[in-house]
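Dock zinc ion; give full complex structure.
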Amino acid sequence: MSVIGDCDYEMLHQNLQKLKEDKTIDCFLYGKSLYGNDLIAFHKGDYGGKQFLITGGIHAREYISCFVVIKLIQEYDLSCGCFFIPLLNPDGVDICLNGLKNVPNDYVELLLRLNNYSTDFSMWKANGRGVDLNVNFDALWGKGKFNKWLPGSENFVGECPCSEVENIALLKLIKRFDLFLSLAYHSKGEVIYHGFSGANKDVKHKIKVFARFFAKLTGYKRLISKNSVGGLSDYLSLHGIPSLTVEVGNDALSHPISYKFLNDIYSKHYQSVKKLFNFVREYDRSSQ
Ligand SMILES: [Zn+2]
């Protein structure tokens, strides 16, 4: 276990705790992960009308995205409502940072086998039983170029679409709200992915317009995701909600990107997100 990892784990949980104690932010439990960890969402702004959604931490080793979302929560000051879920995959992030330390006994043997009997889990992406949560959604499920059919650190689609408790809980939560737009934070590469092929023409057009706007503000590259299906952004786009997948962190950095790079990464985001949200609201209003 690296010193950086220890520090990052502590920082992540300290930051989440601070958010939970902040009376200006609504916090609620929307379920439990496979290992029984809390699935927590935060909300700021009005509940009336359409909402935004910002998520992070679906891929374990990309936990730098959790910190980006946490900082966005802290700074968010728009009146328009936004749901934030900084840590979609708490078991996976724990495995990445702590190895087997907090893994329930029933899963230790499985995880060791899936990790080729190495105790270094720093490159782990999946959840606590080897399913990649971001290829598990019901959106051309199992049709991805890199999809795998056996559990592992990454790309296993699960036994059926939306088989995982973390994803079931997430969809149960977000189906209750009408969403303007979703931003799914990942790492790395400074890229904005858009253009799920299953989305209808109108949604695809909106996503392209929003991606272009956000790319200009952040200086990130805009790319069409050709090989990815079954992701959260794919699922939401399929259901008429424009969604962008945002990969933070320069490609030269190696996984997992440590907390110490956060300020540099984050500096490109808050003002850009604010401007994007205002743009999306205006776009939505004018296209009514
Ligand atoms: Zn990812």
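Observed: Residues 59, 62, 134, 186 surround zinc ion (CB under 6 Å).
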